């Protein structure tokens, strides 16, 4: 389904995650991400197999002082769209937020994806028009990381910041 999502988002070449990487991220000693799976019901109430997923992780707002949920990916297979699976996945993530006292549930949507934008708007999701996502990857990421070697940030100050978050 991840590869199907990459195709839909017109970026199949960017779907490089391996099964091993996903297994470690989701089920390793220190999970960094979480997933919900939507399944169709087969005959006699038996599961009919996966038809969608929501991949998410916790974020944190310094303004509210609380965690939130960031939805990295939401995908429902084309044959199952319109069956309520996407809404059910989003509703479950909203429930997690409310139950745990998280203040925000956020995600990004491609500006050309009108069906998704309409779906999210109908749920009451507000566009964050003043905010623009920025990303560092590849060579620019490595170049900036190399500059950290000569900065005034010491391992002691990093340790102090880390201990405050624990």
TrEMBL record:
Q: Membrane-spanning regions, if any?
A: none
What are the alphabetically sorted keywords of the record?
A: Acyltransferase, Transferase
Identify the CDD domains for this entry: NAT_SF
What does the record give under GO molecular function? N-acetyltransferase activity
Q: Which Pfam families match?
A: Acetyltransf_1
Record-annotated N-acetyltransferase domain positions? 1-146
Q: Which InterPro entries match?
A: Acyl_CoA_acyltransferase, Diverse_Substrate_AcTransf, GNAT_dom
The entry assigns this protein to a family as follows: Belongs to the acetyltransferase family.
What is the name of the protein in this document?
A: N-acetyltransferase
């Amino acid at each position: 389904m991840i590869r199907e999502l990459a195709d839909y988002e017109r970026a199949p070449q960017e779907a490089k995650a391996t099964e091993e990487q996903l297994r470690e991220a989701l089920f390793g000693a220190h999970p960094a991400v979480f997933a919900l799976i939507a399944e169709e019901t087969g005959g006699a109430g038996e599961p009919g197999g996966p038809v969608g997923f929501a991949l998410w992780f916790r974020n944190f707002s310094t303004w509210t002082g609380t965690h939130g949920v960031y939805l990295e990916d939401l995908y429902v297979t084309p044959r199952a769209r319109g069956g309520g699976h996407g809404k059910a996945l989003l509703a479950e993530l909203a429930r997690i937020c409310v139950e745990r006292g998280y203040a925000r549930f956020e995600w990004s949507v491609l500006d050309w994806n009108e069906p998704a934008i309409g779906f999210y708007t109908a749920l009451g999701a507000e566009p964050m028009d003043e905010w623009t996502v920025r990303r560092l990857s590849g060579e620019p990421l490595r170049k900036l990381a190399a500059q950290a070697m000569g900065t005034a940030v010491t391992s002691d100050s990093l340790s102090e910041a880390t201990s405050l978050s624990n």
